Amino acid sequence: MELAERIKRLEQVNKKLQAEIDFLSFRLDLIANKSPVTELLYECNVTQEQYTKIMDLMDSLRNKLDRGEKISNGEYETEMKKIMPGSQYDYHFAEAMARAFMEERRWEEVFPALYGDFAKYKTYLQDRGKGE
């Protein structure tokens, strides 16, 4: 095996190891900062890159609401599926993520705009408005 080929392989291994270290470091941070959001991120093996994209999506939804635009759970879930491809995703994850952010008072106006008309959340949202 030529030296150049060995170097190329070692660089690939190094890149893979660095990605694994970054992922594990992110997961350790999630454990250390226990909250509804971090627990969900940990359980679903969300990466730092995916989390950043999720926060960008939440910012985008809040901006639409601030401009008086309507947002829909279908569009939100479609965008979330793009961030969380394959078996990592189902609509329950998207719903739980929006709810967890609301529970932490982050993007808290987004969850009711997306899911406030759902019968299963009517009482929860009413009680939340009264008690918190």
Describe the structure.
The protein is mainly alpha-helical and 132 residues long. It has one domain. The chain is built from seven helices and no strands. The protein starts with a helix and ends with a helix.
User: What profile does the largest beta sheet have?
Assistant: none
Global structural class: mainly alpha
Give unreliable regions as ranges.
none
**How many beta-strand runs?**
0
Overall geometric form? elongated
Count of separate structural domains: 1
Portion of residues in beta strands equals: under 5%
Quaternary structure state of the chains depicted = single chain
Give the end-to-end Cα distance, rounded to a whole number of Å.
66 Å
Helices and strands in order:
Elements: H1 3-32, H2 36-43, H3 48-66, H4 73-83, H5 91-103, H6 110-115, H7 119-131
Q: Brief description of this entry?
A:
The chain has helices spanning 3-32, 36-43, 48-66, 73-83, 91-103, 110-115, 119-131.
Question: What descriptors fit this protein?
Answer:
0% strand; mainly alpha; single chain; 132 residues
